[in-house]
Amino acid sequence: MIDELPLRTWLAVAVALATAGIVYFLSGSGQAALAALAGGAALLAIVVTGSDPQPRDEDDAPAAPAEGPGIDAALDGFDEPVLIVRAGRVAAANQAARALLGRHVVGEDARVAIRHPAAAEHLADMATESPLAVELVGLGGAEERWRMRAAAIAPATRLVHLSNRTGEHVAEKMRVDFVANASHELRTPLASILGYVETLQDAAGEEPALRHRFLGIVFDEARRMERLVEDLMSLSRIEADKFRLPSTRVDLAGLAREVCDALALQHGDRGHDVVLTAADDLPDVTGDRVQLSQLLHNLVGNAMKYGRAGTPVRVTLSRAEQLACLVVADEGEGIAPEHLPRLTERFYRVDAGRSRSLGGTGLGLAIVKHIVERHRGRLDIASTPGVGTRVTVALPAPVEALGAAVIKT
After folding, report:
1. Do 189 and 108 reside in the same domain of the chain?
2. Are residues 402 and 277 part of one domain?
3. Is residue 72 part of a domain?
4. Domain with 360 in it
5. Which candidate, 270, 244, 228, 253, places its Cα nearest to that of 361?
6. How far apart are CA 291 and CA 287, in angstroms?
7. Count: domains in the chain
8. Span 157-175, average pLDDT
C-alpha cells in the first residue's frame, strides 16, 4: 500500500520536512518546527495535488519546490530577512528582505542583490557548505551590522537568513567604553594617592605642614574613589532591577523635605539657598524610596554645585493630571544646546575639569535616567546659557492616590 502512494505525496512530505527543518534552523524552537511541519504538509499537499504528475526515471533528482503564493506566505511569516537562492539567483524573498535589499531583488544574482563582498564570497560557490555565520558590516547603512547564514534545502538551492546585530554591537561598544571610562576614572585618583604616599615616605613626611597637606590630598582622592565605586554599584543595582516595577507607596513631598534638609547641613551657606515648594494636592507615588532619595540627592546636589553661589535652587513639587512632577531649577552658567542630548550618558561631562574639582563622578544624571525609567516616568532637561538649568521628572501616581488627592482638595 505504501509503495502505491503517488510521487506528489512523497514530494509534499519531503518539502514539509524541509520546511520544518528550516524553521528549526532559524528559530531553534521545536514547537515552531512542529507547527511548520503540520502547516507545510497541508499547504504543499494542496499545491502538489493541483499539479499534473509527470513520470520520472528512478535516477532523476527530486525537484525543488516551486515558488508561489504558498512559499511567499511562509517566508513572510519571518520578521527577519529570508531569501531562497537557486543556482545563484534570488528565487524568493520575504517582505523584510525586500525592505532591506530592495523590491527588485527577486530574479537578481544573489551577490548583486545582497551587495556585500563577504556575502558574495560566501555565496559564490554553491557546492561549498559552511556552517559558520558571515558578518556583514555596513549592509543597509554605514553603522548597521548583519549576520548571514545559508543552509541547503534542495539541490543548488539555499535558504539565506539575515539577522540584524546592530543593537548587540552598540550594546557591546557601550560596555567596552564603560569599562574603559571606569578604569580611567579609578586610575586617576589612585595614581595621585600612590604618588603622594610615596612622597610622604621620603623627606616630605618629616615636615608637619607638608605632611598635613599631602594627607589631605590623599584623603580627598580616596573619597573621590569611594564616591565613584558607590555610584558604579548603584548603577549596577538599578539596571538589575529595571524590569521589576517598584511596589512601595512613597510620600514624595516628605522625602524631598528630608533630602533638602540633609543637603542643607552638608553644604553650609549654600544649603540655605534651597527653596522647596510642594503642592497640597500632591499624590503619593509608587516607587523605590531609596532610589527616589538618590534621584533627589543627585538633582538637588547638582543644582547646588553648578548654580551660582547665593542664587536660589528651586525644588518644586506639583500635580499634573495623573503625574507627580518634580522640578529642580538653578541659576547657573547653563548648558549649551549641543550638550543636552548627551548629559545622561555615563561619564559624559560638559566641563570635565570643573566636574572633577566639584567632586562629580560623571554618573549622576545617568543614575537619574535609569531610576526614572525603572519608575516608568519621564525626564526632561532644559537649559539656557547664562540663565540656568531646569530638570523635570514626572512620575506616575497610583489610581488610589489620585482619588485621595481629589477628595482632599
Report:
1. no
2. yes
3. no
4. 246-408
5. 228
6. 8
7. 4
8. 80
Angstrom distances, CA of residue 133 to CA of 19, 22, 107, 114, 160: 20, 15, 24, 15, 11
Phi and psi angles of residue 225, each rounded to the nearest 5 degrees, phi first: -65, -40
Q: Average of pLDDT values for 197-209?
A: 74
Look at residues 164, 190, 222 and tell me which one is the last residue of a structural domain. Answer: 164
Confidence of residue 15 (pLDDT cuts 50, 70, 90): low
Nearest to 43 by CA among 79, 76, 19, 27: 19
Instruction: Say if CB 394 and CB 368 are below 8 A apart.
Output: no
Give domain status of residue 69, yes or no: no
CB 103 within 8 A of CB 168: no
Residues 187 and 235 both lie in one domain:
yes
The pLDDT value given to residue 222: 87
Rounded-to-integer distance, Cα 244 and Cα 375, Å: 9
Q: Position of cell 520536512?
A: 17
**Residues 240, 243, 246, 252, CA torsion sign:** positive
> If we measure between CA atoms, which residue out of 224, 300, 203, 213 comes closest to residue 256?
300
Q: Look over the chain and give the mean of its residue pLDDT values, rounded to a whole number.
A: 77
* pTM of the complete model beyond 0.70: no
Q: Report the length, in residues, of the chain.
A: 409
Cell of 84: 531562497
* pLDDT over 50 at 49, yes or no: no
Burial 209-218 (b: 16+ CB within 10 A, else e): eeeeebeeeb
Do residues 376 and 245 make contact, with C-beta atoms less than 8 angstroms apart?
yes
Q: What is the mean pLDDT of residues 379-386?
A: 93
Nearest to 377 by CA among 245, 283, 280: 245
